[in-house]
Amino acid sequence: MPPTACPTLRHLLFVLNPVSGDIDKTELEATIRRYCRERGRRATFFHTSGNDDLGRLRSHLAAHPSDAVFAAGGDGTASLVAEALAGGATPLGIIPLGSGNGLSKDLGIPQEVEQALRLTWDYQLRIVDTLRVGGRFSAHLADLGFNALVVERFDQGGARGPGAYVRIATQEYVNYQPAIYHIETDQQTWEGPAFMVTIANANTFGSNVIINPDRELDDGQFEICLIEPFPNLAAPGLLYHLYTNDFDVSDYTRRLSCRRARISVPGQAEVLVQIDGEPCRLPTPVEVEIDPRSLRILGPPASA
Ligand SMILES: Nc1ncnc2c1ncn2[C@@H]1O[C@H](COP(=O)(O)OP(=O)(O)OP(=O)(O)O)[C@@H](O)[C@H]1O
């Protein structure tokens, strides 16, 4: 018998992104249907179109309430469903199908479909913070600078997967010019050049780079994680620290913990930002604020 905090989820909506990942979605739909039927659950489906999905999903949820909504796609689909559910009582589940799947990894959600589907009946409910970055919703990580540029190029290109990301990152690194940032938080002010500026509600990118170690999705604060310009010779050491949970050890990193921040780039009226894996251009200054405990998420049970 599950604890009362985790009621049985009978009607599950799956939001499917037909173009994410390399998996046949017709077969996936049949797998989900069968899995749920065998366990006495009802599965229904909503397909994203790439056009006003947030508005369409909100209308669908208002007309057809369900006990949980699973995002079956990459980080963009997880963030879309998270935004539609934020502030409400219906929890988000994630079936990771994208290239990175950062939010699902941060939550410890299994990366294999049948294992992730276990969360339809065996889960722990988490209530996490979300962010507003320049008025846009973010559940996971947003950034300005180098990674935002790589994500934009990746988005514009046809190739998917971690290999394509690494190839683009290597090409862009050669001529990359760090910008100057002016950052005011509710705690402090910092100004200087930065290779990248990450606005982190969570810990880890889909690439497994740990940009914000030892912080929680539900700690009521976020971090601005700065990587300052570094000489080429320092790159391997820096990467090593980023992959080994040692962000603060490097000479080229610093973190600002806060609840509110304003980020400007002197001389620039707008700036490229990636938010939960999707690139966009935002007017400066970019205002960031936290919405504490605003999203319910199905994570693996503590015993998993
Ligand atoms: N039917 C569709 N046709 C074209 N694009 C779509 C469709 N549905 C969603 N999209 C677009 O897919 C993007 C989100 O993709 P998502 O992040 O879920 O998967 P992915 O890109 O494969 O994963 P990752 O970001 O991990 O590489 C959004 O830009 C969205 O507009």
Describe this structure in words.
The chain has 2 domains: 11-129 and 294-299, Rossmann fold (3-Layer(aba) Sandwich), CATH 3.40.50; 136-293, Tumour Suppressor Smad4. Helix content is 26%, strand content 34%. The strands form 3 sheets. The protein has a 6-stranded antiparallel sheet, covered by helices on one side. A 6-stranded antiparallel sheet has the order 12-11-10-7-14-15, with helices on one face. A 4-stranded parallel sheet has the order 2-1-3-4, with helices on both faces. The protein is an alpha+beta fold. 40% of the residues are buried. It is globular. It is built from 8 helices and 16 strands. The mean pLDDT is 93. It has helices spanning 25-38, 53-63, 75-85, 102-106, 113-117, 146-156, 161-174, 235-243, and strands at 11-16, 42-47, 68-73, 92-96, 124-133, 136-138, 141-145, 179-185, 189-194, 196-200, 222-227, 253-258, 260-264, 270-275, 278-283, 286-299. Helix 6 (146-156) packs across helix 7 (161-174). The two termini are 16 Å apart. The protein binds adenosine-5'-triphosphate. Adenosine-5'-triphosphate binds at residues 17-21, 48-50, 73-77, 98-101, 160, 206, 277-278.
